[in-house]
Design brief:
With about 210 residues, this protein is an alpha/beta fold. The chain has a single domain, classed as Alpha/Beta hydrolase fold, catalytic domain (Rossmann fold). It has seven helices and seven strands; from the N terminus they run ββαβααβαββαβαα. A seven-stranded mixed β-sheet has the order 1-3-2-4-5-6-7, sandwiched between helices. Helix 1 crosses helix 7. The longest helix has 19 residues. It is globular and about 40 Å long.
Length: about 210
């Protein structure tokens, strides 16, 4: 760890990816660690950070997740502290990606970020498909890649296909993946490692296309 960040991938990587965690699990959860290492192995510099409430939990304080929009200033502060050289992609796991999506357009318009990467976007709370968190995604201008499990309880393939999302959003559907992008091998014949390989390959292709 360097300062407040967990870092993976080459120090001299041309592109940096900054990832925030989900509402209930820290930046070093097995899911985030595996994803960061897969992206690092693909040649990206990957930085993970924690919001204040999660850092407080490490100190023994019982802090519930705050409303996502109240974390926007913390995400902006993490970008400033990271001071990435070269193109920067922001995003995160679940709520972390949602927070990044709320500030993406202002940062992209000012040239501070190149794109947005969401890992398991929380389109709605589990079992509450009517409580959509997609209003701002209808008009987002930032190039966006969402990696989503097809059976994610926060937004399945069948549900999301009916949403009116911006044409700047590309969705990678991972067959039988859950909210952590993990498939049931007995159902799909695929493993979590297979899906992470697909994620890394897709992110590489997507980033390569951002400069065109």
């Amino acid at each position: 760890m360097v300062g407040k960040f967990l870092l993976d991938g080459p120090e001299d990587a041309p592109v940096t990816i900054l990832l925030a965690h989900g509402a209930g699990a820290p930046m070093d959860s097995p899911s985030m660690t595996a994803t960061a290492k897969a992206l690092g192995a693909a040649g990206f510099r990957v930085a993970r950070f924690e919001f204040g409430y999660m850092a407080a939990r490490r100190r023994g304080e019982r802090k519930p997740p705050p409303r996502a929009e109240t974390l926007n200033p913390e995400y902006r502060a993490a970008i400033a502290e990271l001071g990435a050289k070269g193109p920067l992609i922001i995003g995160g796991k679940s709520m972390g990606g949602r927070v990044a999506s709320m500030i993406a357009d202002e940062l992209h318009a000012s040239g501070r970020i190149a794109g947005l990467l969401c890992l398991g976007y929380p389109f709605h709370p589990p079992a509450k498909p009517e409580q959509l968190r997609t209003k701002h995604l209808a008009g987002i201008e930032t190039p966006t890649l969402i990696c989503q499990g097809s059976r994610d309880e926060f937004g399945t393939r069948d549900e999301v296909q009916g949403y009116g999302l911006s044409d700047r959003i590309e969705i990678l559907w991972l067959e039988d993946g859950d909210h952590d992008l993990k498939p049931r091998k007995s159902v799909s014949g695929l493993s979590a490692a297979d899906h992470l390989k697909t994620v890394a390959e897709t992110v590489t292709r997507w980033v390569d296309g951002l400069g065109r």
